[in-house]
Amino acid sequence: MLDYGKEADRYDASRGGEPRAAAAAAAVLGLVPPDARTLLDVACGTGLVTRRLSRPDLRVTGVDAADGMTRMAAGRVPGSVVLGDSRQLPFPDDSFDAVTTVWLLHLLPGAEETAAVVGECARVLRPGGVFVTTVDKAASHDVGSDIDAALAGRPVRTAPDRADAVRSHAAAHGLTGEGRARFRGHGQGRSPRGTVDDLHRGWFTLLAPDSPLAARFAARLALLPDQEVPRPDPEFTLLSFRKQPAAAAP
């Protein structure tokens, strides 16, 4: 797992920067009801997407667990970013009209933590509000390129952000499916040399950076042509869910 506090300074430039943030924010806002007045962006990172979620009638708050990330986000969304754990959000029940998690659930270690985060997002969401989240992040990066072929057979963990699993967690917390959107991950097309760098940085969670297995995959990647040329950008998927009002007592 990457240290996202240490990654803060290079995070935006290594992940598509402003074009990717603009595409993500536009897709998220397309799933946020026009009558929403408050939005919480959970795991807001550097705030690059968060600041684009603001509109004149929508007050946006960001929360992140990494000090380095929250410091950068606070500069972009002044007075609206707090330090906090997504598994225990520092907000009362029913606080927001919309809650978003963009590129968070895939980072969690397993189903228990994913269920906890979805449950917390549901808790702070007002009845009738909407939860929007990315799903299937890792699968989105498989674009059918020669890099994907070179990486075939690597150990892959069960993705905690699988769409079917997220739907199940959402239903368990009173959230029903509402909508779906896709957007381009500008600047995230992999190059062979960049993928080797990612191997050595621990990007592939079940491949220890200094292991013989990682070295074998790095050697395969080194044989590919156009070492610096990015392959096609991935397309990411968003799902939205609406929180149902609590059942009236008989």
Key features?
single chain; 250 residues; alpha/beta; Rossmann fold; 9 helices; globular
Task: Give the topology.
Layout: H1 4-11, H2 17-29, E1 38-42, E2 59-64, H3 67-76, E3 81-83, E4 96-101, H4 111-124, E5 125-135, H5 137-140, H6 146-151, H7 163-172, E6 175-184, H8 192-200, H9 212-222, E7 235-243
Parallel strand pairs: 1-2, 1-4, 2-3, 4-5
Antiparallel strand pairs: 5-7, 6-7
Helix pairs in contact: 1-3, 4-7, 8-9
Describe this structure in words.
With 250 residues, the chain is of the alpha/beta class. The chain has one domain (4-141, 159-189, 232-243): Vaccinia Virus protein VP39 (Rossmann fold, 3-Layer(aba) Sandwich). It is 34% helix and 20% strand. The chain has nine helices and seven strands. Strands 3-2-1-4-5-7-6 form a seven-stranded mixed sheet. α1 (4-11) runs parallel beside α3. The longest helix has 14 residues, at 111-124. The protein is globular. Residues 1-10 have low confidence and may be disordered.
What kind of sheet is the major sheet?
7 strands, mixed
Sequence of strands across the biggest β-sheet: 3-2-1-4-5-7-6
User: Approximately how much beta-strand content do the residues carry?
Assistant: 15-25%
- How many β-strand runs? 7
Helix-strand pattern? HHEEHEEHEHHHEHHE
The CATH topology is: Rossmann fold
Note the total helix count: 9
What integer value in Å does the Rg equal?
Answer: 19 Å
By CATH, the architecture is named: 3-Layer(aba) Sandwich
Residue-averaged pLDDT? 90
- Indicate the percent of residues in helices: 25-40%
How far apart the termini lie comes to 48 Å
* CATH hierarchy class name: Alpha Beta
- Can you tell me the CATH superfamily? Vaccinia Virus protein VP39
- Ranges where pLDDT stays below 50 over 5 or more residues in a row are 1-10
Number of domains: 1
**Helix vs. strand class:** alpha/beta
Shape: globular
